[in-house]
Specification:
281 residues, five-stranded mixed sheet, alpha/beta, Conserved hypothetical protein from pyrococcus furiosus pfu- 392566-001, ParB domain, 12 helices, Arc Repressor Mutant, subunit A, single chain
């Protein structure tokens, strides 16, 4: 049985999250039959043709970077490298080189997988946004924490999270790659769920660029779809920020001549339940 060779030094093998300096890890060859699927994998879709292409590359040149595993009883759980794992499995090999962690938390597992996929640009925008949401809401990280650990700036992370507020139908278009994240962010400015869906469908049908969409949404005349921008006082902005930190979600205060409204967004039923608990309802 052919053994897989490693083509890089140890320092280049582990994603640069800082975790490798804090946790005990070592490289060893593991039988594929002892590896369980990743329980916290940000990436949800895998292209079979791409897996076959990767398998051919591994067959010719060996495995350049090992997968990352954590111990799970007598076996192992996949943390990072599911595409490589699938490709080696496709080649019908018995073992694969792996960096093994003895002790690693669910949060650290998720962070490693997210950073690896971001660095390789393996995630589609919705998968990346959902991974950020999980780390923010389930593990209590702040956007500043995420920015420091992923190398992304806070505004980029906020923009990804905004994609989760799109109507389901539009979000699916982004997930499938029919609509770019840039186009989707422009469509977010359109008032009304029905209008968002209609514009997204038209953008795909007519092949609008982001610039063309911006002209439709932000331009003058009959095609102007965006509502007039609301100017908020520094006081309201500071209250908004405090509420965002407390509820860990997007919150908007919309002032009017008399009174106003507070818009509190949630991304799924789980985040709604968490917010309800915070409100004590």
């Amino acid at each position: 049985m052919k053994r897989l060779a490693l083509g890089r030094g140890l320092d280049a093998l582990i994603p640069s999250t800082g975790l490798e300096s804090e946790k005990k890890n070592y490289i060893m060859e593991i039988e594929l039959s002892r590896i369980k699927p990743a329980a916290h994998q940000p990436r949800k879709s895998f292209n079979d043709e791409k897996i076959k292409e990767l398998a051919e590359t591994i067959h010719r040149k060996g495995l350049i970077q090992p997968i990352i595993l954590k111990r799970s009883g007598e076996d192992f759980e996949l943390v990072v490298g599911e595409r490589r794992f699938r490709a080696v499995k496709y080649l019908k090999l018995e073992r694969i080189p792996a960096v093994v962690y003895d002790d690693i938390s669910k949060q650290e597992t998720m962070e490693l997988a997210l950073v690896e996929n971001i660095q390789r640009e393996n995630l589609n925008p919705i998968e990346e946004a959902e991974a950020y949401r999980v780390l923010l809401q389930e593990y209590g990280l702040s956007q500043s924490d995420l920015a420091g650990r992923t190398g992304k700036d806070r505004s980029s992370i906020a923009n990804y999270l905004r994609l989760l507020t799109l109507p389901d139908k539009v979000r699916h278009m982004v997930y499938e790659g029919k609509l770019t994240a840039g186009a989707a962010r422009v469509i977010l400015a359109v008032p009304g769920e029905k209008e968002k869906i209609e514009l997204a469908e038209r953008a795909i049908r007519k092949g609008y660029s982001v610039r063309e969409l911006e002209k439709i949404v932000y331009g003058n005349g009959k095609k102007r779809l965006r509502k007039k921008a609301i100017i908020k006082s520094p006081y309201l902005l500071s209250i908004e920020e405090k509420l965002k930190r407390k509820f860990r979600t997007k919150i908007s205060i919309v002032p009017r001549k008399k009174g106003g409204k507070i818009i509190l967004e949630y991304y799924d039923n789980e985040s709604l339940s968490r917010i309800i608990d915070e409100l004590g309802v």
